[in-house]
Specification:
The complex is a heterodimer of chains A (187) and B (139).
Chain A lengths: L2 H10 L3 H23 L2 H18 L9 H18 L2 H4 L21 H14 L3 H11 L5 H8 L3 H21 L10
Chain B lengths: L2 H11 L5 H13 L1 H18 L9 H35 L8 H13 L2 H18 L4
Helix pairs in contact in B: 1-3, 2-3, 4-5, 5-6
Classes of the chains: A mainly alpha (187), B mainly alpha (139).
Chain lengths: 187, 139
Amino acid sequence: MDQDQQIVDQCHRGQSAGFASLLLRYQERVYRRAYSFVHNREDALDITQEVFIKTIDGIQSFTPGRPLWPWLRRITTNVSLNFLRGRPALLSLDDPESPQVFAGGEDPAETALVSWRLEEVQQAMGRLPPLHRIAVVLRHQEGLGYVEIARAMDLPLGTVKTYLFRARAALRSELERREVLGSGEVS
Amino acid sequence: MARCHDELIQLYVDGALDPTERALVSAHMSQCEACRAKAMLYKGLCWDLEHPEPEPVPEALQAVSDRVMAKWEEAQARSRAKARWQELPAMWAAANPALGAVSGTVNAAASQMGKAAAPAGKALLKRLTRLLWKRQGGR
């Protein structure tokens, strides 16, 4: 019996050890996913708490044998979207009025180059409009297809494609400007 | 470079084109150095997006975990209490084997009590007790 099934069985029997195992196994993953959506530590913690509180009720009707992560990811996505819908200013598709200034300006050591680049990418992600960012995370970190993303975000497929196109174009442009990515133009 | 090309290149790199579109874009890129360069950029970007640095987990996550665990314990306690209420009429009937005639009533009441709020359940149980008392001849 795999670990997810064991967790679900124990939870169905009302055993606290099962739910404690679920928390231990998935709390960091849920937190990180929430953070990748909202890019704010306190908000990500609030979302993580709400996700697991919903899990307490939902686990009773969860079918044993199914993997837990897709279900938890769906709850995390829904809770994050609801959180953002409750804050229309955050949900704006416009760029922030006062974009944060990136730290940096010093030459990164060769060994830290990849780490630096990934950090720059994450910072650029943090500046995307939240819905664009969620679409990018679901596509490139969760590996969902376009149709699955549309379903997860409750949006038309065309809208998801537009969000992804704009997000990647904005990231490319930002990272080129910061010389994180080489210029795509050829002379 | 036209916007439509940019979108097609993104979809090409992302593997989201159908085979015909993919062949067309591929044929175009074999002729166009600018599009090839752009595709390389998007490929690099996609790799970066797929390999994020793990976000450090704050210590406060443990407090979240403790609060959620406490909620779980509360929910289990409620669930156990509800289960006891549902079992009570059946236990009553089992303790009074002479009352087989009313066992149907008892079972129906048990089912209702599972759905009802606790006060309604208590009132129902009181009525049931009176009924059983009369059936036993008021002994």
